[in-house]
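Shipment paperwork, digital attachment
Item: protein structure file
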Amino acid sequence: MSKKNIQIAFSVVSTFFLTGFNLFSQSTVSTPIVGFQKVTVPVGLSTAGFPLLNSDILKTTATSVTGSNVLLSGETNVGSKLTSGEPYYIEIYSGALKGDRFDINTASTITAANGSVVLDSASGNNTYAVTSISSQLDGATIALRKHITIEQIQSMAAAALVGNICAPSADQIQLYDNSTGGFTSYFLRSDGVTWRKVGTTTTANKTPVPPGVGIFISKKNSSVDLISTGTVRQNDFSNPYKTGLQLNAPAFPLEISPAGIGGTTANGWTGSLSAPSADQIQVFNPTSGGYDSYFLRSDGTTWRKVGTTTTVTSNNIVSSSQAYFVSRKSADVNNILINPVGN
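Attachment content:
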C-alpha cells in the first residue's frame, strides 16, 4: 500500500523560541533550526509531548540493507558513536520510506563495530516492518539520534522532582499501551535519580519516549516548569494510526487543529452524526480531570466538540507541548504528515 501524504497546517505556539529561522519560510534550510520550549506541569495529572529532537549523531546515506543491517556511507564504526544502554533510532529523510523511523539494537551495533547500524526488528516503535525494507533504503538519507528518555525528561525540570520509596507518593511518568488499553507507570525513587516501573525492581531511566508519542505526568506537591531544548524536525513524519486509542504528541513544535492533521474521511478518518461512532481527538483537561472530546461529523470534514454544536475544524485544540488521544475506528499504517517547516 502506498503512503498517504497529509499536508498539515499548524500555528506557532507562543512559548516556543527559534533561532535564525522563520517557520513560514519556503526557502532551503541548510542548518538546524534550534530552539527551546517551556511547559508548566501543575500538581496532579497532566499531559506532555516533546517535539524537539536530540542532535543528530550522524546524517548520511544508506548504501545497502542486509537483513536488519543497514550499511552507511562514510562510516567505519557506528558502534563507537553509541553509548551502551541508551536507546537510539534512525529517521529516513529521503526515498520511498521518507518519514519512517526504526529503532536501533544498540548492543548489536556496538558489537558489530563496523559501518552498519543494526535495526531492532521487534521494536513496536518502528513505523514500517524491517522485514519489508528490502532495497527501499538504498541511497536514502538517514539521521541517527538518541531517543528522549524518562531521565532526560527529569533533567528538563526547573526544580527537583519528588521521589519516594512508595510509588503513590512519588512523581510519575505514564506511557499508554495501545495493545492493553492501559498505562505503564514509572516513578522516581527516593534517591531522586532512579526511575522504576511500578511493580518491578528494574531501573527504567533509559525508557524511551518515541517521537510522536505523548505521556501523562503525575506531579506531587508543587508545579514545575519543564524546559526542553533541541532541534526542529525538518522532515516528513510517519504517523501511523492503530485501531482504538493512541496517545499522540506533536511531531513539530506547533499547535494542532483537526484540519491541520488531515482529519477528513478522504484521508481515512471515520465520520458520523453520533460521536461514539466517529473518530475522535480527546484532550485531557487538568482542571476538570476529564477530557475535552472532539469528533468528525458525517459530512467528512467538520469537527465538533462533543455535547455542543460548535465547529472546531480549524481551531487549535492541542498545544505544541501537549499529548492527545486519537480514537480511530480503523487503522491507517500509511499516514504521513508533510513537513510544514521547510526542507
